[in-house]
Amino acid sequence: MEPTNQKFMERVVSQKALQMGNSFPCQICVVGFLCGICLTSLFLAVLTSVGTFGFTGISFSSLSMGISPWNSSSEIINVISSSDCNFKVKETERWVDSKPREPESDDDERVSFLTEAWGALLADRQPEENEFLQRFGLGKSSLPNAPHLENCKLSAQVNKRLDERSGAGKFPPWTTWKGSLNMYPATATDENARSLNHQPVSDGAHPPWIVGSDEENYPLTRKVQRDIWIHQHPINCNDPNIRFLVADWEVLPGFGIGAQLAGMAGLLAIAIKEKRVLVTGHYNRADHDGCKASSSSWSCYFFLETSRECRDRAFELTKNKEAWEKGIVKGKDNYKSKEIWTGKIPRVWGDPWSYLQPTTDINGSLIAVHHKMDRRWWRAQAVRYLMRFQTEYTCGLLNIARHAAFGKEAAKMVLASIDREWPKVITNKPKSDIEEFVWSNHRPWVPRPLLSMHVRMGDKACEMKVVEFEQYMGLAHRIRMRFPHLNNIWLSTEMQEVIDKTKSYPHWNFYYTNVKRQVGNASMAAYEASLGRKTSTNYPLVNFLMAVESDFFIGALGSTWCFLIDGMRNTGGKVMAGYLSVNKDRFW
To answer: Do residues 279 and 305 make contact, with C-beta atoms less than 8 angstroms apart?
Structure first.
């Protein structure tokens, strides 16, 4: 019973104490006593800070130890220091500490300044570039390297060397060099090694536009790409035995870029089966002021499918009636539509599609076999070849898109690694050889891992099952469950409602191009017409190429666009990244 009585007494004492504490006179005394202690402590703190150290260094425990008459009250002071009084001091400490945070605002200004400076260097902005740099007394060499931007002029020069035969029909230097390394000044010691570049291609050589090993791509990708290039680049285009297939790109109303690529893939298949060199003609989507130099051809965006010599020879033959009659040159009209769109796939390489890896996920299951495996494999090969090298113009479009999306993040990274006094203090260091030649092959920086998501809705409902954005995000969540560090989504869509719904997912970082988007269910043709030829071509190609470079991809296989993105990824070293689709191709 004693423990019970003891608890009872404790409750009684506690209740009495509570009653006393609730009385008004007692409350007045306690409040007065506490305020007095607080004021005294603050006064002593100020005096001490003036004499010895700064205000932010005050600790109540050190003050109580220095005043021996108050030692009996030290517990009370410590209690107050952990509540009311210390609250006031900490508020002041935050305010005092915020003064050194002025560099944070300076950092923000430096980030904005560097971002704007990089932006002034982008393509087609020469006047702004000069004006901006002169205004601040800077030169190009004064700016830190922009990790998210590519040197488009240099890349085009390098790719040109890798895509054409040298003198006497010698093979391009595929076997040894990558990036700008082939441009490293030759010395006497490496002349013998350099001469190997001009020998016939060896068995182990593969095209430089293919990333990854055979296991990371569709079966035989490296061999097929090499063989297509050799087929399309005969040593002597004037050889009377060389035959040609000359065809313009599709221009039918309602045909998007995806349909145009699919059609040209069919024509390339015919050309290979008939041992003809494919030569593409007019590309209607290049009919805008950005592509003036390319004469409205595919060469505005990507390297041509054959050499200039073969194109000149082919177009010369198109004016020769006898060449048509003898079948030396043929055109699209020589073939039925069915032959182009659903014709037989070249069997030069056997049937490598029969052992495609099952890496496509639909409704939680991998698709191992379907009825169009041969066409899926071939279109991937054909589109990869047609888009093997970007032109300087396309490279510039990607630079603009990356800078708009990732420019500030890149600036923060760079400024954290250089002198804090930049741009007041500038150290111009020349690039070392390893920076200029060896590291030149590295791709531009993007925040990784990056998930690309193409949401196709609108009038596509007449061709495939259309699902809501929430279902796409459900697949994104599945990927994140396996890769929890995934936070970034590159979103491509024509629908404004999809962009609006991204606000419901605050734990994801969404990036997307800044263009007018579709409201309602207008046709894609009407939507593209509202954007104009230039924008309606440029921004989809940027989204396409960003999807190809992303770590993961979510789309709809019922969309030809997504179908081709998947093919480019599967010939770009990303087979094992897999593909999550919200539906299956309507022809499977």
So the answer is: yes
* 245 close to 277: Cβ distance less than 8 angstroms: yes
- Which residues are CB-neighbours of 58 under 8 A, at least 6 positions away? 45, 48, 49, 89
Distance CA 418, CA 426 (A): 10
Instruction: Return d(Cα 467, Cα 244) in angstroms, integer.
Output: 44
> Counting runs of H as helices and runs of E as strands, what totals does the chain give?
22, 10
Beta pairing, strands 329-331 & 243-247? parallel
- Look at phi and psi of residue 310 and say left if phi exceeds 0, alpha if psi is from -120 to 50, else beta: alpha
Instruction: Report how far residue 446's alpha carbon sits from residue 14's, in angstroms, rounded to the nearest whole number.
Output: 64
Helices (H), 236-358: 257-273, 308-317, 321-325, 337-342
**Mean pLDDT split into 10-residue runs, the chain, 588 residues:** 41 42 50 58 48 34 36 32 35 34 69 91 62 74 90 92 84 74 59 49 74 93 96 96 97 89 97 98 95 90 97 97 97 96 95 92 87 92 98 96 97 91 74 79 92 81 72 97 97 94 97 90 83 95 97 92 95 95 72
pTM of the predicted protein model:
0.78
Of 459, 451, 503, the closest CA to residue 479 belongs to 451
Residues 6+ apart with CB under 8 A from 177: 197
SS (H, E, C) 437-471: HHHHHCCCCCCCCEEEEEECCHHHHHCCCCCCHHH
Task: Provide the 10 A C-beta neighbour count for residue 570.
Answer: 27
Backbone phi and psi for residue 207, each to the nearest 5 degrees, phi listed first: -60, 140
Beta strands in 414-543 (DSSP E): 450-455, 488-493, 509-511
Q: Check residue 389 and report its DSSP letter.
A: S
Q: Where are the beta strands (DSSP E) in 204-314?
A: 243-247, 276-280
The label of the residue with tokens 């030069």 reads: 348
